[in-house]
Design a protein that fits this description.
About 55% of the residues lie in helices and about 15% in strands. The chain has 19 helices and twelve strands. The strands form three sheets. It has a four-stranded mixed sheet with strand order 2-1-4-5, with no helix packed on it. It has a four-stranded antiparallel sheet with strand order 6-7-3-8, sandwiched between helices. Strands 9-10-11-12 form a four-stranded mixed sheet. The longest helix is centred in the C-terminal third of the chain and has 25 residues.
Amino acid sequence: MNQEWKFKLHSVYGQLLFDRKLTKSFEQVKANKGAGGIDGETIESYERNLHDNIMNLLGKLKSKTYHPQPVRRVYIPKKNGKKRPLGIPTIEDRIVQQSVVNVLQPKFEEQLFHSWSVGYRPNRGVKRALQIILWNIEQGYNHIYDCDIKGFFDNIPHEKLIKVLKKYVSDRTTLNLVEKWLKAGYMEEGKRLHSDYGTPQGGVISPLLANVYLNEMDWIWDLHGIRFVRYADDFLLFAKTNDDIQKAAALTKDELKELGLEIAKEKTKVVDFQKDNFDFLGFTFHHWREGKNNKKPVFHVTPKAESIKDFRLKIKEKTRKNLTLSKEEWIKRVNPIIRGKVNYYVTIISAIKENADLGLKSNCKTRWVRRTLEALDGYIRRRLRVAFIHKHPSQRKGMKMQSRWNNVFFLKINLIPTYWLYLNKAYGYTKEQYMDDITKKSKHRVKNRIRRAKEKGEEYYSSHRLSKMQNAWNASS
């Protein structure tokens, strides 16, 4: 596993030296999109003269005159208000990196990587991570070490990383190539800067190198019988007792120190899932509690609060009231955001179902998600009502249009309700069912309002209310 291979990979570089393979790598780079590097070459400009560019690159690789260029340093905002540095390699460097990944990854997948490491790997990912978490919780591994590595991608020691890679690869040319990528440095404000640490986030090969490096930790955990799930540098350890999880935490700190890494203390904690919640990959796992129906213990999973906040911000950005667009254009702006977020949220349902197919009875509940999505749908409709008003739009005017531009209206103009899409993906819930449900709920709400008005001795459908409703219909016709 993390022991040195007896038969190392020795002919990696030679497998890169084919124009068809380099062209395939370019197509993969193109599919991943992204901006150009420091040379100003973009995917589009490179593709315009693709054959000549590929043949030129092939010539440099064959003559061993290819030299990586520094990455272009950019910063992207993080949800905590800070900024994350990204390193953008040139298109040519990304093609060569992708070619090396195409050779190494299948071998590492087959012979090296642990099945509980799921980040940046083919046929794995968030759903697989959720399955592992649910399986451990259901089996009583409810003491959890929720850990984050401090500045992982920026702090991987180059020397130690190459030393680990040498355990599995003996091809000196390829090892030298990886070392050159690591040492190429980055350009920032016109200056070239170097470091002996870190792999640039944004580099094609960085996720593979990160998994190779932390694979050392994976097999240490395995050797000590510790259950875990790892997604890149985020991981959870599971144990049945507090003593066992404390031992696992101590072992982890020691082994990470050997790797030249350290725990991010402010992001790391020990969780007792009988009373504590924890977050992982955009979901919040709410601790065990008594079920409503049969009083049997259950736990809930919902999208993380920060994820919902991000959802609302993305909708807000796309529904700025200073734009004048048709209703169809407004819908086109928000629907892709809705699809992307809901497709992610429904992953928890898929994980529960796949575990059930493997024989695991689930006590995980997801009904709380529906409340969140209903509230989100209300927020989206409110934003759109204001956006639809072209003359002096305001929240007050939007409120007046509520009876005219209601749920049924938005469904007819093809707005995707998050509540419907979530249940449709999970259980095949139809739009007809959704229409029936929202009509019943609407009638129920109006009935309650009429009842409360009568109890106060008031007339619900007063002349003032009817006038407002009529004005709304006239304004939108």
